[in-house]
Design the sequence.
């Protein structure tokens, strides 16, 4: 319960949009008076008590919209737990000169690991094989043969930190790497493609690693999905918004592509129910950064950014 103002409590007030683990909540509670958005039954009543709130602590996905920002007259900073910041209304933050921070780098390797795990799981059909053994079907015959992953042509959509870490791992699997990126990355042993469709047409598998947001909405469009072809695979560890989901589901249903490994969806966690009926997919509940070590590091970084702000020191990872 947040204490009422005027009790001599000098801790800055912050608004938290979502719960964080106890290892973050304890130091946060020691440093700040916390308003818990996710717990409030009456959000408007909560916001009316937030007139002295100086920071929003949110995720990139939940973000902070214009109405929320407008309702917090004392707001000074938006701190995101996560590398993505697609849920933040930057017009609103810029209009008020509010800095936005995120948690890059600390999660890069976990997300790249998960991209490789999905690439292997979907081609080698690991979940299906696991169910096959558990259901006792092994005694009555073997499983159908799977697709080889090593040595494939791997298209990386978005060659930022996570894309580069994924490419490095894929090189270990002998993959030939192509990519599409807003800006070419010279000096790398990877082939740059002029369009997403051209990348998908070349690749055996496309892994989507770029940032979400308006600039990348459905960048993996119907034509690019179709260009993968009936032997092609899609893996997405970025945001559901980067893929035309209707076109993807249709391509998976009709066999226009071979399969998909997906960690991210539109409308998480209330995802399109058609995914559950697709046998050629491996589905994960957005776990890219979900290891204890990484989540601890993300929590530390978000707290370090807030502490820096309130101490008047430079922010560690300001994204805007
Ligand atoms: C989430 C992510 O932030 O960093 C990102 O952009 O998508 C994830 O790491 C994490 O699931 C917490 O919401």
Sequence:
């Amino acid at each position: 319960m947040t204490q009422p103002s005027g009790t001599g409590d000098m801790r800055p007030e912050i608004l938290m949009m979502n719960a964080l683990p106890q290892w973050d909540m304890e130091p946060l509670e020691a440093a700040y008076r916390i308003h818990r958005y996710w717990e409030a039954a009456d959000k408007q009543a909560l916001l009316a008590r937030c007139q002295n709130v100086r920071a929003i602590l949110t995720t990139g996905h939940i973000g902070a919209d214009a109405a929320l920002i407008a309702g917090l007259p004392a707001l000074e900073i938006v701190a995101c737990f996560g590398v993505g910041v697609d849920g933040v209304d930057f017009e609103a933050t810029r209009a008020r000169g509010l800095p936005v921070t995120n948690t890059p780098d600390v999660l890069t390797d976990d997300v790249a690991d998960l991209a490789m795990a999905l690439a292997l799981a979907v081609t080698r059909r690991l979940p299906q094989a696991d169910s096959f053994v558990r259901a006792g079907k092994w005694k009555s015959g073997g499983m159908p043969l799977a697709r080889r992953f090593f040595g494939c042509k791997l298209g990386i959509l978005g060659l930022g930190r996570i894309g580069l870490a994924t490419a490095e791992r894929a090189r270990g699997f002998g993959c030939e790497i192509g990519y599409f990126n807003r800006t070419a990355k010279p000096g790398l042993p990877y082939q740059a493609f002029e369009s997403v469709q051209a990348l998908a047409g070349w690749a055996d598998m496309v892994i989507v690693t770029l940032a979400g947001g308006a600039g990348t909405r459905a960048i993996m469009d119907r034509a690019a999905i179709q260009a993968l072809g009936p032997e092609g695979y899609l893996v997405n560890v970025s945001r559901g918004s980067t893929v035309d989901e209707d076109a993807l589901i249709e391509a998976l249903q009709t066999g226009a592509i071979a399969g998909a490994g997906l960690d991210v969806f539109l409308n998480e966690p209330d995802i399109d129910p058609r995914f559950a009926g697709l046998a050629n997919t491996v589905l994960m509940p957005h776990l890219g950064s979900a290891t204890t070590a990484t989540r601890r590091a993300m929590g530390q970084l978000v707290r370090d950014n807030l502490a820096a702000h309130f101490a008047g020191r430079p922010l560690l990872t300001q994204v805007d």
Summary: The chain has a mean pLDDT of 97. The radius of gyration is 22 Å.
